[in-house]
Amino acid sequence: MLKDGDDTLRKTSRPVTTFDDKLQTLIDDMFETMYANNGIGLAAPQVGVLRRIFVMDLQDGSGPVAVINPDIKQMQGSQICQEGCLSIPGKYGDVERPASLVLEALDRNGQPFSLPADDLKAVCICHETDHLDGVLFKDKVKGPLLSE
To answer: Three-state DSSP class for 29?
Structure first.
């Protein structure tokens, strides 16, 4: 997993256009890496792949989700949430995110889906989508970046 300071984390990812076995392996590997590091989300740039893909599993019973070419719509309200990042271990800070949103994306088979999200799910979607645009949570922290 790439850590803060690696230039790849600051680059914009390209859309996914091919849904093949290589993509399926990447998604499976991303889930494995996320779970091994006790994360709730992981974006492809964090594993050195500049494609618009992230995986998430909030461990809330909603199950794992692979998200490809995400488009965030209908953002409403705001919330301040304390965020951390697997690429910036030991650091956290308060970030303002929408209170709710609707995610439109493709699943791992290239099928479109829409996912309404609020609270932690909305935060995770925004955080991981930021990674696809070369943005890290520390760029958006309100106040100091804290250490564990």
So the answer is: helix
Sign of CA dihedral 124, 29, 22, 6: positive
User: What string of pLDDT tens digits covers the 148 residues of the chain?
Assistant: 999 999 999 999 999 999 999 999 999 999 999 999 999 999 999 999 999 999 999 989 889 999 999 999 999 999 999 999 999 999 999 999 999 999 999 999 999 999 999 999 999 999 999 999 999 999 999 989 999 8
Joined tokens for residue 44: 């492809």
Report the catalytic residues: 128
CATH superfamily of 7-147: Peptide deformylase (3.90.45.10)
